[in-house]
């Protein structure tokens, strides 16, 4: 059969890729996405179904943000990875994904001040780098389905910061115990690590605040601790220097991005092994929450920031944020990324990989069911391409 334009364009997204020790068959990654379907913090059968639906042989999946400790949560019904019951429950998800030949990392998450007393043990204030609350521009989704204001956080005392680093380390070990191929450290989108990185939030006067080198200390310690526990080749890191989600602004996102990249490069040299990847979100998309995400600069400036981080980072680079099939092809073909993660399109298209490959039409996502509790509706009931079209996936 003659080669078509689609075949040629597909080469970029559908060429195999060696991500460290993992052999991927294509470049379309499931982005981490909180879906609020884990009552009591335990993943269940619906998770098995949701993740297997999105698994392909040689595909790469990143789980939803998964809580590293009881204080880490800021959304209702988020799964954790800090106790035995959670580890056992995740094993079922991981086994099912592996049975389909896919690779799965667990995203380790602490939301910091993006929480509320009703989500904290003993009704305590959420922890952060700062005592400043998230502004009234943002609302938190509460367990009863209403939205509230973010409360005043409690700034961590200096000695407590290493206790949180230890929580990341233990959570990473638990993830490996559950069978995950690795973990992603969520350092993006205005959550705890970003609350240390960004000078629009971090107002500390100890060695974790002030100059960029101090603001990078927490993420560096977390990555070092996790790398020492499970090996660099099972660790990915996600950052979003230019995203102002939850007031996470910085006066110089480019320098911030580069500072983190330099530290990751150094950790790779020191540990004698590459990290699995760096995952950078760019703000070229309307927000996934209730409020529109701001833009830091023009589309050109944003693209420049991501490209500069990509060039400076010595290893696999994943980009995310508003990518379509065509933009993903362009990013990989131009060398702007090795892999592209897809969020919302993957929510509504469990067989997104096949649809991209065939250039088939896509289901539209329903924002209203992103964070609802139903284990089926808006979660596992988005239709696959009809088998009556003869489009049975061999991926
Ligand atoms: C419902 C929803 C939940 C999300 N939860 C997370 C999360 O837990 N961790 C994270 O790093 N990003 C999260 N994101 C951001 C996505 O990973 C992704 O970067 C974002 O949706 C932009 O990509 P897209 O334009 O392909 O959707 C979430 C996005 C959505 C839509």
In short:
The protein has 12 helices and 14 strands. By secondary structure, it is of the alpha/beta class. The protein has one domain: TIM Barrel (Alpha-Beta Barrel).
Give your account of this protein's structure.
There is one protein chain. By secondary structure, the protein is α/β, with parallel strands linked by helices. It has one domain: Aldolase class I (TIM Barrel), CATH 3.20.20. The chain is 34% helix and 14% strand. The strands form four sheets. The chain has an eight-stranded parallel β-barrel, surrounded by five helices. Strands 1-2 form a two-stranded antiparallel sheet. A two-stranded parallel sheet has the order 6-9. Helix 10 (325-333) links the parallel strand 13 (317-320) and strand 14. Helix 1 (5-14) crosses helix 10, helix 2 packs parallel to helix 3 (84-99) and helix 4 runs parallel beside helix 7. The longest helix has 20 residues, at 158-177. The two termini are 20 Å apart. Residues 286-296 and 390-395 have low confidence and may be disordered. Bound molecules: flavin mononucleotide. Flavin mononucleotide is lined by residues 31-34, 64-65, 107, 186, 188-189, 238, 281, 285, 288, 320-323, 342-345, 370.
Bound molecules: flavin mononucleotide
Number of helices: 12
Estimate the helix proportion, in percent. 25-40%
Structural class: alpha/beta
Radius of gyration: 20 Å
Q: State the fourth-level CATH superfamily.
A: Aldolase class I
CATH topology: TIM Barrel
Rough outline: globular
Organism: Actinidia chinensis var. chinensis (Chinese soft-hair kiwi)
Domain NADH:flavin oxidoreductase/NADH oxidase N-terminal: 13-361
Protein name: 12-oxophytodienoate reductase
Keywords: Flavoprotein, FMN, NADP, Oxidoreductase
């Amino acid at each position: 059969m003659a080669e078509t334009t689609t075949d040629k364009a597909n080469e970029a997204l559908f060429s195999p890729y060696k991500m460290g020790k993992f052999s991927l068959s294509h470049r379309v990654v499931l982005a981490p996405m909180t879906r609020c379907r884990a009552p009591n913090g335990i993943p269940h059968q619906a998770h098995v179904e949701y993740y297997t639906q999105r698994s392909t042989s040689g595909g790469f999946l990143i789980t939803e943000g998964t809580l590293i400790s009881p204080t880490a949560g800021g959304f209702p019904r988020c799964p954790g990875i800090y106790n035995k019951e959670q580890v056992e429950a995740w094993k079922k998800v991981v086994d099912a994904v592996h049975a389909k030949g896919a690779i799965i990392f667990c995203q380790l998450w602490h939301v910091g001040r993006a929480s509320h007393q009703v989500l904290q043990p003993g009704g305590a204030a959420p922890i952060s780098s700062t005592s400043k609350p998230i502004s009234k521009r943002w609302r938190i989704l509460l367990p009863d389905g209403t939205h509230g204001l973010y409360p005043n956080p409690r700034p961590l005392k200096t000695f407590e910061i290493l206790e949180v680093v230890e929580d990341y380390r233990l959570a990473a070990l638990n993830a490996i115990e559950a069978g995950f191929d690795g973990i992603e450290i969520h350092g993006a989108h205005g959550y705890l690590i970003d609350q240390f990185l960004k000078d629009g939030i971090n107002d500390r006067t100890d060695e974790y605040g002030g100059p960029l080198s101090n603001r990078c200390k927490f993420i560096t310690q977390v990555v070092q601790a996790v790398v020492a526990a499970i090996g660099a080749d099972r660790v990915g890191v996600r950052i979003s220097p230019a995203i102002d989600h939850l007031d996470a602004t910085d006066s110089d996102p480019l320098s911030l991005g580069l500072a983190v990249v330099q530290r990751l490069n150094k950790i790779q040299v020191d540990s004698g092994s590459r990290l699995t990847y760096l995952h950078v979100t760019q703000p070229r998309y309307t927000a996934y929450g209730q409020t529109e995400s701001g833009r830091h600069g023009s589309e050109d400036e944003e693209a420049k920031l991501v490209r500069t981080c990509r060039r400076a980072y010595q290893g696999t680079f994943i980009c995310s944020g508003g990518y379509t099939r065509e933009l993903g092809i362009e990013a990989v073909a131009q060398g702007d990324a090795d892999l592209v993660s897809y969020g919302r399109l993957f929510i509504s298209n469990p067989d997104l990989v096949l649809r991209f490959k065939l250039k088939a039409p896509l289901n539209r996502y329903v924002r209203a069911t992103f964070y609802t509790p139903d284990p089926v509706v808006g979660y596992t009931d988005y239709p696959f391409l009809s088998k009556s079209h003869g489009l049975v996936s061999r991926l």
